[in-house]
Write a structure and sequence with these properties.
This protein is α/β, with parallel strands linked by helices. Helices cover 36% and strands 22% of the residues. Strands 1, 2, 3, 4, 5, 6, 7 and 8 form an 8-stranded mixed beta sheet that branches. α5 links the parallel β2 and β3.
Length: 275
């Protein structure tokens, strides 16, 4: 707890990231990795390999951008720095371990941004007494035309988690409204990725399974209900929460997909890299 408190105190972060809970969530992810690094290792390896494989599709290598760079656990940072003229890491905040790792490469920069486009609306809506969540409004970065490679790193299904936690303490939000909000954010994120004329590597979980100690699946939750993804290149399971993390009685396993989306080609629209 002392380490987490120090991170909260000394991590540079905008006020909206602190007030809405984004910084707290980022610190919690780093702490969770510290507890379960062995169990997470296969997933982190698969994520890095998926990014490397998608990177190979890039005909030009001016600029790589990573959405949801976080603690950089799942990002092959050295490979990106070596293959692209510049690399931009985008997240709601950047903890000091990530900042120090990025400093090793002169062509890497850190950008603080709310990629869902709801953070400011959350705070404004609560202040003004809104009775529902804001609409997601992800904006293209000014330098989007220079991006040849875009990564969405294990963030798509999680974009609504912190906003919903924030809203649940401040307004009476029905389950249907919460599910709709989560779906709207995920759909807006996918549409946003498709606006880039770049090779895109989308890594996301699509389903979570709750397993008893004997390995039997007790419950399944879809993470992207109603969202149709392009065909995936590869899939794997992530033991995201071993017994003792969420409950002593069960563990949580995430079903992961990696999708490579190629840029527009001769007016034919976007195609999956596996095809």
């Amino acid at each position: 707890m002392i380490v987490e408190a120090l991170q909260w105190a000394f991590t540079p972060a905008p006020s909206w990231a602190r007030r809405a809970g984004y910084l707290k969530e980022l610190i919690a992810i780093q702490a969770q990795y510290g507890r379960w690094r062995r169990q997470w290792a296969p997933h982190l390896h698969e994520s890095k390999d998926a990014i490397r494989a998608a990177m190979a599709h890039c005909a030009t290598r001016r600029h790589a951008m990573v959405y949801g760079s976080g603690p950089l656990l799942d990002i092959p940072l050295a490979d990106l720095a070596a293959h692209f003229e510049r690399v931009t890491l985008v997240d709601v905040a950047h903890l000091w371990p990530a900042r120090l790792a990025a400093r090793r490469f002169p062509n890497i920069r850190l950008v603080t941004r709310d990629i869902s486009g709801v953070a400011q609306g959350l705070l404004a809506g609560v202040a003004q007494g809104a009775d529902g969540p804001p609409r997601p409004k992800p904006n293209l970065p000014q330098d989007h035309a220079s991006v040849d490679f875009l990564v969405s790193a294990n963030v798509m299904s999680q974009l609504a988690v912190t906003p919903l936690r924030f809203l649940s303490r401040r307004m009476d939000l029905s389950r249907d409204a919460a599910l709709q909000f989560a779906a709207d954010i995920a759909r807006a994120h996918l549409e946003h990725l498709l606006q880039f004329d770049a090779t895109c590597c989308l890594i996301t979980d699509t389903r979570r399974e709750f397993l008893s100690r004997d390995g039997a699946v007790q419950k399944t939750e879809e993470q992207l209900p109603g969202i149709v993804l392009p065909p995936h290149d590869r899939s794997w399971d992530w033991e995201i929460a071993p017994p003792g993390e969420v409950s002593p009685e069960y563990s949580v396993r995430a079903r992961m997909l990696s999708v490579t989306i190629l840029p527009q080609n001769d007016g034919q629209g976007r195609q999956n890299g596996a095809g």
